[in-house]
Amino acid sequence: MKILVTDDSRVMRQIVIRTLRQAGYDDHDIIQAENGREAFEMVGAEKPDLVLSDWNMPEMSGIECLEALRASGQQVPFGFVTSEGSPEMREKAANAGALFLIAKPFNEDTFKDALDGVIA
């Protein structure tokens, strides 16, 4: 399985990748994008099986990326890893087609709870 991790912070991308590995998802191919626009382009080019995206990013936010993907017909499974964990944000994410929203701070158990039904 190929997983696209999108965050404008290189450090946060590394934390997400490390947490994925700690949660037991260490045998997947992980690729990275620095913002929503790059993630949108990489979904078309790299065909990931899952996108884990931050919400707030320059150029194109995570929610804008998800909305653009769905508008273009892309149905790649998409989840947020973000500090935006309010009920309103969760509803907006779900309405846009996100499978889950993992709020920061998180740990490997949080990832397992969100991803066990998504990653086979």
Automatic annotation (TrEMBL):
Q: Which domain of life is it from?
A: Bacteria
Indicate whether Phosphoprotein appears among the record's keywords: yes
InterPro entries associated with the record? CheY-like_superfamily, Sig_transdc_resp-reg_receiver, ST_Response_Regulator
UniProt key word Membrane: no
Cited SUPFAM superfamilies? CheY-like (SSF52172)
The Response regulatory domain sits at 2-119
Q: Which UniProt keywords apply?
A: Phosphoprotein
The processes (GO biological process) annotated in the record are: phosphorelay signal transduction system
- One Pfam family, short name please? Response_reg
Positions where 4-aspartylphosphate occurs in the chain = 54
Entry protein name: Response regulator
Species, as recorded: Modestobacter versicolor
